[in-house]
Amino acid sequence: MNPRRPPSRLVVLDRALELLPLFRLSDSATDEGALQYAPSPGARWRVLAAPGDRLPGTFDQDVYVGLLHRWGECGRPADGTITFRLHAFLRALGRKADGRTYEQLRAALARLERTTLESTAAYRSAERLPAAAGRRAEPRESGPAEAPGPTDARFSVLASVVIERRRQEDPDQLALFPELAAHDPGDARVTLAPPLRANLAAGYVARLSWARYQQLGSPVARRIYRLLAAHAPPPEEGSGARATGGHWRAPLERWAEQLPLTQRYPSHLQRVLQPAHDMLQAAGAVRSATLVQDGRQWMVEYVW
Fold this sequence. Notes:
Layout lengths: L9 E5 H4 L15 E4 L6 E5 L9 H16 L7 E5 H7 L6 H16 L1 E9 L25 E6 L2 E7 L6 H6 L1 H6 L3 E6 L1 H9 L2 E5 H6 L3 H13 L15 E5 H7 L7 H17 L5 E7 L2 E7 L1
Antiparallel strand pairs: 1-9, 2-3, 3-5, 4-8, 5-6, 7-8, 10-12, 11-12
């Protein structure tokens, strides 16, 4: 990490991507190789696993948020390039750094590069706006930028991933200690894909507290926090606090699709959501989180 730059308290994320499902929230769930979501009539969003791989899951969600946090620490470069040591990155995620987690991190980075995101009038992209090109993303004091138009596109979260082992300067020693070669952490250089960079540069972003995200121990709670951040006005830069006075209400069935959750019955969804809601309230991310019945329809309601 850059010792000359103070730690970033806020994570700036692509708001368009935050509003769409991307990560499986249960690694034990049946993985069909594709995730589908229809945000509006005529629109379609698909997440397609690379051949021989699975869909991004709970650890990949943490890596994704961690990458955008690191991007902020790097000064929000317009070219989307993020550099870090695998050891330091895992520690920043609150993970133990060992041979197993190094391999998990390498696999997650590769998955974020190889998983195809396919939008048919679903993903809102500022990529074609000339003002977004080459502009450094800065926090907006007046709130989120106006939403760009929906687009048809195929892309991935990361445009490229390069990991170099730090012991390459002494390859003869690696032959004597193969276990070190297998577990060598290495340095990573990854690049955010152009659609994400364009939205970040255009200010179409969601902001969340890095400390609060890490405080939430449940993948479902972390995803709800991300999704609510996409609907909320931004807090002040450096405050680490949530904006207050917000309210969000949505049909439970649609909310489950957007997260996404595999459960469909209200009683089953409540069993999954209630622990996450309790965690969000305990962390101060929301003041209340409730499921209410409105006639024959169940609704989820958040107040912060």
